[in-house]
TrEMBL record:
PANTHER family: ALPHA_BETA-HYDROLASES SUPERFAMILY PROTEIN (PTHR45763:SF28), HYDROLASE, ALPHA/BETA FOLD FAMILY PROTEIN, EXPRESSED-RELATED (PTHR45763). Signal peptide: none annotated. Residues 125-384 form the AB hydrolase-1 domain. Pfam families: Abhydrolase_1 (PF00561). This is OLC1v1004584C1. One of its GO terms (molecular function) is hydrolase activity. It comes from Oldenlandia corymbosa var. corymbosa. SUPFAM superfamilies: alpha/beta-Hydrolases.
Amino acid sequence: MRSLYLKVSSRVYNYSVTTTTQTSKKYSFASSPEKRSTSELKSIQEYIPSAENFGSGMVFRKVIDMMMGCLGMSNRPTLPSPSETNESPEVDLLPAIKSPRIRLSDGRYLAYREVGVPKDQSNYRIIIVHGFGSSKEMNFLAPEEMLTALGIYILLYDRAGYGESDPNPRRSVKSEATDIEELADQLELGTKFYVMGVSLGCYPVWSCLKRLPHRLAGAALIVPMINYKWRTLPKDLVKDDYRKNLSKWIIWLCRHTPGLLHWWLTQKVFPSANVLDKNPAFFNSKDLESLGNTPGYQLFTQNGFQQRQVFDSIRRDCIVAFGKWDFEPMELTNPYPENETSVHIWQGFEDKVVPVKLQRYVSERLPWIRYHEVPGGGHMLVYDSAVCEAILRSLLLGEDPPQYRPN
């Protein structure tokens, strides 16, 4: 059986910025970080515990690394972001848009890509919502024969500010659902359609379940992110979870020191600034094996973060996803009392990004959601062809594979 590769690649716009003080630089800060003394930063770094001595310290070390950068420059002015300087950078024109796009009611454009059988010949129409550092070019290893046999049409789109879609400076949990509904209406998907979210791309799906349940034929949340600000999460369940502090620091940095965060993600003075790229602190052995065997895998790198649109989109996305929502997912009532529509959560048992115990708690609070757990699975379930097939069969046909039932 051949698999259809829906390739994940963060489209990176490679434009350069020149200023009145420097040329041929990606960005010019008012005070160049390379000229700052690095001795105090290096001395502090010596006291940071290693991963071997800190349990899950590889992740926490990254937070301390960023804190270290703040402490090392605490007696100096905060580095401004490029948009905050008094200089007027000249930006080269972006590459021509190659993908089809729709124009939303607020004037923004969303780019999209279609996969599977032609829409007018389809039995099932699915919108896939990508996650952090991804795009409409994402990988979802769906068997091609299955798409054809069942008549599956898949619509992937660049969320606001990603890939070829315009940014949304007023992004919110609500706006994500609104974008999906407008996309479905303009592309004439019908009165009902399926929606699947991956990781950070699941908060738009939660928003659809809150605001558009009548439009959904079914929904699947694949390794959905957990927002530690949800007040219904028990304190004793998250008090020792290092991810809680990690998300708190990320949001603080995104809100209050975007220039410093941008510099840290793009600087080359200290190694390992890119904390995500195939880092064993985030990916288990199966994830790493899948990523190594899958063409086109790419998360945002230092070069990608240098693009201001990329950085700002990620920053806004994180603030919304991990900030305060206008509703509590675990307080949602079953919108489908007659079981006319099914909702699913798919979780890897060894996921290092989203802990399985929290996902189990969410599913227990929402018994109307069908919970599936992949033994040995990590955070990259969409890179496993067998899992992708099971996700589609459970969502579209109501199958319940016994190997993915939690113990």
